[in-house]
Amino acid sequence: MNAAIVGIGATDFSKDSGRSELQLAAEAVRAALEDAGLEPSDVDGLVSFTMDTNAEIAVARELGIPELTFFSRVHYGGGAACATVQQAAMAVETGAARVVVCYRAFNERSGHRFGQVQTAAAANIDNSWSYPMGLGTPAAMVAMFARRYMHEYGATSEDFGRIAVIDRKHAATNPRAWFHNRPITLDDHQSSRWIAEPLRLLDCCQESDGGVAIVVTSRDRAKDLRQKPAHVKAATQGSGVDQFTMTSYYRDDLTRLPEMGVVARGLWEKSGIGPDDVDVAVLYDHFTPFVLVQLEELGFCGRGEAKDFVASGALELDGKLPLNPHGGQLGEAYLHGMNGIAEGVRQIRGTAVNQVGGVEHVLVTAGTGVPTSGLVLGQG
Amino acid sequence: MTDIEKEAARIAEQGECAPRLARDPVNLPMINNWLEAIGDDHPGYTEVAPPAMVQVWTMAGLRGQRTLDDPLGQMMTVLDEAGYTSVVATNSDQTYHRYLKLGEQLSVTTSLEDVTGPKKTGLGEGWFVTTRSTWWVGDEAVAEMRFRVLKFRPARKPEPVKEIPKAQAIRPSVNRDTEYFWEGTRQGELRIQRCGGCGLLRHPPGPMCPECGATKPKYLVSEGHGVIYSYVVHHHPQVPGKQTPFVIALVELDEGVRMLGEFDGEPSVGQRVEVVFTEVDDELTMPSWRPRADR
Ligand SMILES: [Zn+2]
Prior knowledge:
The complex is a heterodimer of chains A (380) and B (295). With 380 residues, chain A is an alpha/beta fold. Helices cover 33% and strands 17% of the residues of chain A. Chain A has one domain (3-111, 210-378): Peroxisomal Thiolase, Chain A, domain 1, CATH 3.40.47. Chain A has helices at residues 21-36, 56-63, 81-94, 138-153, 157-172, 186-191, 219-223, 258-271, 289-297, 306-311, 328-331, 338-349; strands spanning 4-10, 45-49, 70-74, 99-107, 194-197, 199-200, 209-217, 230-238, 280-282, 361-365, 372-378. In chain A, the strands form two sheets. Chain A has a nine-stranded mixed sheet with strand order 3-2-4-7-1-8-11-10-9. Chain A starts with a strand and ends with a strand. Chain B has 295 residues and is of the alpha+beta class. In chain B, the strands form four sheets. A five-stranded antiparallel sheet of chain B has the order 1-5-6-7-3, sandwiched between helices. A five-stranded antiparallel sheet of chain B has the order 13-12-11-14-15. Chain B starts with a helix and ends with a strand. Chains A and B meet through helix 4 and strand 5 of A and strand 11, strand 12 and strand 13 of B. Zinc ion (ZN) binds next to loops of chain B. Zinc ion is lined by residues 195, 197-198, 200, 209, 211-212, 214 of chain B.
């Protein structure tokens, strides 16, 4: 695509930001523009999540962005993350806007917590088949998939736990991570309490307050800017057959994430690279089991083989496919996947705290269990 | 020795109180009233009084007051002051030495026999107070009674168990496309949408058949039998209307569609289940699952 990420910005990641969500958004966008060496007056496009409470016009007011020619929102919770960059890239390619900032900011820990039962969501007719039956949290919804996955492939709680251990290991050496200096062992995982069997506490990502912003512009414009650009090699969305939000339980196979399969096909096709060309994988990790399924959907290993792929050490920083060097959402912060995009950009720039050597391509994915999206970022 | 026990010993040591005279001699009108109130139509009480009536003769009346030396009254005061404010009679054993004749003038004396406590009872912590009364005609003892009361401190009513009211349970949103399902559960039927055009079975339902495009769906009534395809044991956080932990099962019905519901039992993938209907209120009946024995 004729688009590049030229700026990244974030607030601190905390459990109680002590400021409004709009302030978090404004701080993150300002930081991203400074990182890019751009002024608010350069911005003419803003993209966020449908779930974000900060209107584009409110963010523009706070930043002093005078005019917008493109503003857009993407649905489906964390599935929107990489799609915000896709929206921005398409806007830049078509000339709808020249500089687009994607942002996501919330007080997800001190304010409205997604991990609680969302009784308001029960008003959605799709949810009338799950919430009233007692299935009302993201963890429980994922647990239903996880149980079937275990049944079909013989995966165990420990196989899920290895993802948490890797994320926390990487977060331990990332000063921005909430779990900086706090690695866990597989025993810690195994002794953590049940949240929704087969998911334990340490299978579930943390809840966070914070904001992240990503600046997208054309490849041409990127050449003159402050940072080494991270080129958007491919950006796609994906929704699968008989798709629901978190409860796609009525498909033939519950061990898959077909919507991520759609994203994978699109990414490999558009970027011209394949799984073997990925140097760093930033995979959405709100719940560990879906990291295993993503590895399979994206073609890093065969069906049911993710547990062996993970156990082989492939996801370590020096492994075949370094996973979430920033610590992911389990370790760094839960910013609905946007902090993962920022990490992808740092890995391309070569400025990450846990920098992987010789990174040409980074794969970033968005929320799982929902209609989702993905990105391939590259050097050239 | 507690203060109560000391007081009890002091009162017991006083022995019998001074005789208290009956208001009236044994008389026929009172006997007849008593028989009527008790519902006793025995014809024999024309010359003598029913023995069980002995306590009646020396009752103090509506506005009567205990005498100062009445041991039961004294002990009640002690216990009232200690916070044991409620009373209930627990035993009354009477012994009659002979029939009382019309015209006989009775008196009664009472002594404190025993005070034991504090005891935990269903009513609250309390003391059992036992007195012994003797009825006299002149200096002849004609009847005796051992009388026991529980003088207790009413237990604080236990906080009602915080059951989540049904109103707080999450209710399904219902619309034109889904109302047939909830109408079905109210009637004890588990309904599965069936396309009016091509017969496709579909759950969750929708207004337009994805196979043939027909928009007039019908339904079939499921046998309500199936197997657990997957399940979750929910522990945290609390869910409105549920007691954790609880199981939610994704059941593959024999007709071929899957459906979520709470499951009452030890779950396993592949386990056979059947539907159960639980009426929440007039409007809502929830389907759930329970184990089904293989036949
Ligand atoms: Zn049809």
